[in-house]
Amino acid sequence: MKHLILFLLITILVFVVSLVFPWWIAGVICFIICYLLKPGYFTAFAISLISVFLIWYLKAYVNDAHFDHPVSGLLSNLLGGIPTSSVFFLTGSIGGISAGLAGLLGHWTRKIVTNSKI
Amino acid sequence: MLNKIFYLTVLTLTGLFFLFLNGNIQLSKEPLPPLGKFLNPFNGIWTSDTRSEKGNHTINLQGIKDHVEIYYDDRHVPHIFASNLEDALFAQGYVEAQNRLFQMEFLSRAAAGELSSMFGSKTLAIDLERRRRGMKYAAENAVKGWEKHSEFKVLNSFVDGINAYISSLSPKDYPIEFKLFDIKPEPWTVLKSALIFKQMSLTLAGRSDDIQNTNLLYYLGKADFDMLYPERQTIENPVVPTEHPFAFDSLYGKHQDTSAIYKHPILRTNIPRREKGVGSNSWGLAGKKTHSGKPIFCNDPHLSLGLPSIWIEEHIQTPDFNVYGVSFPGFPGIMIGFNEYMAWGETNVGQDVEDLFVINWADQQRSKYIMDGTTYPVDNRIEIIKVKGEKDYIDTVRYTRLGPIYYLSGDGTNDLAMRWICHDEPDIPEFNTFIQAMQSKNATMYLDAVKDFISPAQNFGFADNSGNIGLRVNGRLPAKYDQDGRFIENASEKNNWQGWIPINQNPQYVNPERNFIASANQVSADKTYPYYFTGRFERYRNKTINEKLEAIDDATMDAMKQMQNDNYSSKADDFVQMLKTLVSVEALDSHHLDLYKSLINWDFQYLAQSELPTIFEIFYDHLEANTWDEIQKLKDVADIKNPEDWRLLELILTDENNKYFDIISTPKKETAKDIVILSLKEALDEFSKQKNENKDMRWGAYKPLDIYHMTRLPALSEMNVHANGCSDAINATGISFGPSWRMIISLEDKVEGLGVYPGGQSGNPTSKYYKNMLDAWVKGEYYHLQIHTKKEEFIKSATMSLQLTPRS
Lengths: 118, 808
Fold this sequence. Notes:
Mean pLDDT of chain A: 90
Order of helices and strands of chain A: HHHHH
Oligomer: heterodimer
Distance between the termini of chain A: 24 Å
Number of strands of chain B: 32
Number of domains of chain A: 1
Distance between the termini of chain B: 66 Å
Largest interface: A-B, 37 and 40 residues
Strand order of the largest sheet of chain B: 1-32-2-3-7-8-9-10-19-20-24
Strand content of chain B: 15-25%
Mean pLDDT of chain B: 92
Number of strands of chain A: 0
Low-confidence stretches of chain A: none
Shape of chain B: globular
Structural class of chain A: mainly alpha
Helix content of chain B: 25-40%
Radius of gyration of chain B: 28 Å
Largest sheet of chain B: 11 strands, mixed
């Protein structure tokens, strides 16, 4: 349950705030939430990663499906002809990994600040 | 303690990872897009869609006086309805930015020598060349001159239109390339429009053979140089035909002083030499030669073919004019087009307007130089080139009375100053040329409208529906004394340009007796023209065009379509006729006979599906290599050029024992005939060998056309297009250049127009309008240019509409 709340909180906040702020705001939000809600280090990393991976993957997928002329094909050409599906995966991964690292750091920063053992 | 070190390490690494994803850190010399920013689905590449090409939009704007309506048709051509000229130009700027913003940004940066700020150090050499050439200096001077004219405000309307579009963009709306190279659109300025104008001048008037000629004169000696590189062609079809005598003398008198010609080689410079093939065709037929009894006007400029295309098609209507045609994105007016009364177009003039002079330095620091006995200081212009991912590159360009020091030799003995027409501050409102031209209602108005054009000088051709046709070699032509500017000379005012040929003495004519006008980059006038004319002039296309126009009668627009798409090469014809006279079948091996017979029975059409053009081109390459071996071996030490193709043929036919036919590496003394037979055998062997290796030897596949995006990224380009044509045919399609806009206008009471270009209106690589016209262009098909369609029709069929309303 706690995990689900963390997941929903990150997902909703990242989605809403990303509509206005630059790309790195996803990392900032994961950092702050993991700092404040004190999940375990693995949870902080994994839930941040999964939430933002899904947001980036699905948002890219939905945008592309709504275009008259999808950019996924162009992007796969630009990236040396990788399969179109892996373009979405790459997008999700960039968002997910950066957010996962930020969430993990949020967890650790809390520990450092409160002088607990990492 | 250990905890903290571990924590700080991870914190630092994560920080660096974020900076990398944001583009602040580059891991390689080849700049990568900032992956985080770029792939972000909220405002990265995933938001660069084509929604802006649909729907009805009302936009409140400052800077317009009245309501402007813009309707896009099914080819995404904007039809602009405005109530006055300023608003029309504002709207022109707006739609050009809407469709071609990155192209405009790229071109202005390319001209200014600022590409490295986008692409890193790999474009530094190009930027450095632009800085030493003084491109930005030229554009700044242009703006300085333009500002002094009252018409300048129209240019501001255009710039305001571009900025109105730019300021409507949020980062998520930036075109794909801005995201790819992580740049922001900068506010547009008149200077940027001037840079785009100078970039076009560079393409068309930024070349000279001074270095090659000087090197060749030194190595070959005067007798051989004159024999191999005659200044004028033996047979010429000047733009202004011989039957129009020039009833005036040069204002500057006649004079020749060859003592200042530089007597030393300049050696290898690595200065880029512009591609052969940039040129254009244009012709006009008087009513006596057409089916309708009214003139027909045709134009197809051969420029570098790229994506997006260098042209954008536009239709602009106000209560005072109704014009349709193409424009350079970033510069106002319609360059090639038509209105309800007349049609106009341009082809390049090959007159040399870029000369190099050796500077005699007065000190080792190269801060002072001596010219005509006086010592002058140089003006230093500090050029700071921003290089993405690296520190700025700083260069100092020295400016002399003649122009910038374009080439710096190691020891300062061969430093060259460039006198280039584009550096001069214009004293006439040249920016207004195409804005005035598009409003002209007849030949007289048009000739007056375009008289202020300076550079690149063009053959401005026109026809009107009162029945007039005409042409003027239009632009400033420097008055030079004989041989000045053909070679590098010692810097001196005596050998510099003496002034300008007055515009009424430029070669020109209206309603000629032969009932047609034509220009295809050949020499402008015959030898009776009282001013010295030198440069690079075309030999073959113009001959084919003139012969066809002489013969044509009862011409229709369909006949003009066929003519613009004609693939006959008179060069190939001339050389194969020579083969027929020199080569006997016995001289060839039996396995070559079939190929040879098909070659000599060829109709000289460069068709994509035919292998015969390939055989001929391989033969010609071997013929040049075998003949000019003496000259080619100089290539390792100095900039040189081969003699022209027509001169090679003349020598084969008239001077069989010329020493240049001897191959230096063989003990035998070869003659022209030996060389021709040898080259033919080598070519037939090479062709058979490649064909046996299963290589597709059809012309279209052998020399495919690559239409590159400006950034040369293959994903944004259209590669390997198999098209008919060659640079010597009217359909002058080469490897990367060709007819960039084919236009045919019939000047009937109700003017009708056809046109096509190899690309599409949108600069967005994901748009369906990015290259939608390419297929039609390859097939030689045209679109009807809708100048007469009523506004109500456009409203009904519009794929997108924009209502620009003034903000109160």
